[in-house]
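#structure-requests
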Amino acid sequence: MSKFSIKACLVGAAALLGTALATPPAAPARADQISVTHWGVLMYGAPYAVALEKGFFKEAGVEITGILTSKGGGTTVRNVLAGGLPYGEVSLAAAVAAAKEGLDIKIVNTGAASVYDILWVAPKGSDIKSVKDLAGKKAAFTSPKSVTEMVLLMSLAAGGVDVKQVERISTGGIGAGLTALGQGGVAAAPTLDPIWSRTQDKYQPVFFAKDLLPPMTQTVGITTGEFAKSSPVKLKAIIEGRRKGVDFIYANPEEAGKIFAAAYKMDEALGIRAIRNMIEVKYWGRGDLDLKAMDNMVEGLRIIGEVDGPMDWSKLVDKSFLPDDLKS
């Protein structure tokens, strides 16, 4: 979520086929990879793991062979712009920053529909049991201008706590924050799934973002204006394949959890628990773009200084590739 400078060129290639006296057999569809922020680490990628395993992308008409990961932010955007298949799921903040730099991108579907995977925890048995208990204490967040800083500030305000009464400590990462918590350096630290599912026996919740904040679109699917014009059928197929993955997760949490665990190379029981936690908060969007939830996220970005001025979604959002039932 840090500000970044993107200098990427869109890579395009065209294969020239030799002529033949007889019509050659149709060439097999080109196989491509999708870029997904924090694939293999955080929960954004679960629908893609399911769609790959169950053949939903192929069913929808596109051959996807794998997922490219990144550490998020501008890195994922650059992967999308420079990769063979210019589509990927990135943070809304990164998409907005890229658009403000003048890059030719379009938001075409919602990914993670909320920040409800995030919570703050304290050690088991701690007196810190609610957001109000943080007054006069130290609370961790990951890095300046990150989603966790934004969620912490907004949650304190929503919980009626003066942010000036809470000393906010940047720890650099989720793991580092939990280490600081264990050493007594902070009274509460952020975590999220699947880390929360793995460690929840050690900690007690202080507050969940879901209990304090409105829906806030966290990630979106983006593409380039050029790809949107040249390959609308492929783009629709990607969005439809992911939507089928989301629907499967909600309908079949145990099987989806096993698929997710295998893709992320984690314990099966942990994968199932993490999937169930996200189903409970309706974490994954089916693709439909909720402009109010996007505005809520942008308001948070303004609080941490990542966005100035209003957003004109009409120039950035293109709903035409969504299935008809998700366009309204």
